[in-house]
Design a protein that fits this description.
This protein is an alpha+beta fold. It has one domain: 2,3-Dihydroxybiphenyl 1,2-Dioxygenase, domain 1 (Roll), CATH 3.10.180.10. Helix content is 16%, strand content 34%. The chain has an 8-stranded mixed sheet with strand order 2-3-4-1-5-8-7-6. A hairpin with a 6-residue loop joins strand 6 and strand 7. It starts with 6 loop residues before the first strand and ends with a strand. InterPro entries: Glyas_Bleomycin-R_OHBP_Dase (IPR029068), Glyas_Fos-R_dOase_dom (IPR004360), VOC_core (IPR037523). It holds the Pfam family Glyoxalase. This is VOC domain-containing protein. It comes from Lactuca saligna (Willowleaf lettuce).
Amino acid sequence: MAAVGAFLNHVARESSDIDRLANFYQEIFGFERIESPKFDCKVIWLKQAPSFCLHLIERDSNTKLPEGPWSSNDAVADPKNLPRGHHLCFSVSNFDSFVKTLKEKGIETHEKAQPNGKTKQVFFFDPDGNGLEVASE
C-alpha cells in the first residue's frame, strides 16, 4: 500500500515536564511555540520552519507504568491509547481510502477527530509495535 503524497506531520513525545522539554527544543533546535488545541491533558505544540511540528503531551502523573511505546495509561498495545502515547504522524491526501486499506489488511485501528472536528485521525501500530497516526489534510 503506497500512500502517495504522504508527508511527515508531527512527532509526539510524552513528558512529566512538558514546559522543560519545550524550553529545551526551543533553545537547542529553534522551535517556536504555536497555538495548541485544547485536550483533556496539557499539551504544547512546537513548530520548526518550514512545517515540522513537535507535539508535547503531559504524562499522566497517576501512572505507575514506565514510559514506553504505547501509553502512560496502559501497557497494552491498543490503538485507543495512542492519542496520548508515543506516535509518529503522517498526513495523506485521501484519508478515507487510506483507512479502508488499513482495515482491508486487517490492521487494528482507532479512529477519532480532533476536538475542532476538522481533522480526522486514525491510530495504529507498525509491525514492530511503534505507534502511528495518520491525519487528514
